[in-house]
Amino acid sequence: MRVVRFFSLLLGLALTAAGCAPQPVAYMSYPSPAVTGPSHGIDSVVYGTGGPYVPPPATAAAYRPPQYPPPVAVAPAVMAPAPVAPAPLMPAAMVAPRYVPAAPPPPLAAAPPPAGFAFAPVTSPGEYTLDSGDRLRIVVFGQEGLTNAYAVDASGFIDMPLIGPVLARGATTEELAGRISAKLRDGFIREPHVAVEIEAYRPFFILGEVTYPGQYPYVANMTAETAVAIAGGFTPRAFRRNLIVNRTINGHAMRMTVPVTFPLRPGDTVNVTERWF
């Protein structure tokens, strides 16, 4: 034991001379529970002090430093809800608005005619009437000498044997058959039966902004658009929305501004105007 104390004293002197003297240690215990009696801490070994043995605290909670000031439990503040004002009453019309459909857009106005032309009322095609250029097939039953093909001349008449000229301009096929029967009954045939058919229609004419303007044979159920197609189509400068049609109705010439779907008659003159923009 003296040797241990001697070496401990030398260690303490060396540490003191180096300025690294150890601080006093609070407690130190030996692992063996059999060691009892005076304290065997490092302080007692270095400084030669002794004292009663004090065991270390049982738990680590004793080493916790005290809190200054100690915490005080504060109950959370309970705030009363703010008063809510009642919602104002609203009219029923505002609560459930009634659906009002939008007004329909106004109809599109028809395109104005080109400069220099006026609108004319467009009449329905009606029943076809004969005129110069039509070629007819007239059959008189039981009379082979009278049954033949006849053309309406420039004056609007057909020339038949026995009865001579008969006016065909402006008449329908039924009306012309009645005129021929009346003349045959006047001293030639007691009960004539006459039928008139159109063998070939008179041509129509197309002018203006088309590829090939001129005269063309009429085709049944023809429209202004069909006439333009027969003439090779529109030119790049053509006004394609409306066309000008010249037609003779009851001996009176009429000029009409019509759409491309307008039905044509034989002898009509279609004018395709030039567009301005």
What's a quick, concise take on this entry?
With 277 residues, the chain is of the alpha+beta class. The protein is built from five helices and ten strands.
- Assign an overall shape: rod-shaped
Total helical segments: 5
List low-pLDDT spans.
25-40, 113-125
CATH topology of the domain at 204-272: Outer membrane lipoprotein wza fold like
**CATH level-four homologous superfamily name of the domain at 204-272:** Outer membrane lipoprotein wza domain like
- Please give the share of residues in helix: 10-25%
Strand fraction band? 15-25%
> Strands of the biggest beta sheet: in what spatial order?
7-6-10-8-9
CATH architecture of the domain at 204-272: Roll
Radius of gyration, Cα only, in angstroms?
Answer: 64 Å
Q: List SSEs in N-to-C order.
A: HHHEEEEHEEEHEEE
Q: State the CATH class of the domain at 204-272.
A: Alpha Beta
Profile the largest sheet.
5 strands, mixed
Mean pLDDT: 74
Q: What is the CA-CA span between the terminal residues?
A: 129 Å
Beta strands, count: 10
Provide a descriptive summary of the structure in words:
The termini are far apart. The chain is of the alpha+beta class and 277 residues long. About 10% of the residues have low confidence. The radius of gyration is 64 Å and the shape is rod-shaped. β8 and β9 form a beta hairpin. The longest helix is centred in the first third of the chain and has 16 residues. The strands form three sheets. A five-stranded mixed sheet has the order 7-6-10-8-9, covered by helices on one side. It has a three-stranded antiparallel sheet with strand order 2-1-5, with helices on one face. Among the domains are: 52 residues, no CATH class; 66 residues, 2-Layer Sandwich (wza like fold), CATH 3.30.1950; 69 residues, Outer membrane lipoprotein wza domain like (Outer membrane lipoprotein wza fold like). The chain has five helices and ten strands; from the N terminus they run αααββββαβββαβββ.
